[in-house]
Amino acid sequence: MIIHGARPSPFVRKVIVFAAEKGIEVTVEPAGFGRGAEGYLKGSPFGKIPALEDGDFLLCDSTAIVTYMDALQPGEEMIPAAPKERARTIWYEEFGDTIVQAAGQKIFFNRAVAKRLKREPDLAAADLAEAQEMPKIHDYLESVLVDRDWLVADRFTLADLAVACPLINVGYVSAGLSADRWPRTASWLERVKARPSVAAAMAAEWPMVEPMLA
Fold this sequence. Notes:
Elements: E1 2-4, H1 10-22, E2 27-29, H2 38-43, E3 51-54, E4 57-60, H3 62-72, H4 83-116, H5 123-144, H6 158-173, H7 183-194, H8 196-209
Helix pairs in contact: 1-3, 1-6, 1-8, 4-5, 4-6
């Protein structure tokens, strides 16, 4: 099974970690910005990353891919089956993929990615997102992590993974998540990052991230 994409992407990282948690062996092939292997170009006609190539089965979009993986490998599902837990997991994935990613992208792209692409960074937009958008996100997480270690089902699920992935990128270029102001959120994110699957993914992407931070 091949995952096409750039490892530092929150969406690519989500799929890599999800596969590891499910015990699915994958190979990661670089792709993005209209460039990549044939499986990527055919499987992602609109240039989205990640794309999945599983034999002759091609698929793009991280949500579609993890849904496929969860059904492919039965066991303790990363997307819980119980109706309320399943619904909450889908909400948190949407929250991570849209609200958190939208704010986080302004920070990570403008402080790290833009210069690698030889684009003019909008540092004011990054500063504004850090000052105004991220605290609302941290406040919300702090409110839902009362008396619990994980967002759903008292265990690590897609909910935690999807929300944490864009926050990991923000953390590369921002110290805005204060453990004094948001202790539960900071502790939860450290628990996510300490999981072997997440730690391995971050270690593998670091050679690509480090030059962006220079």
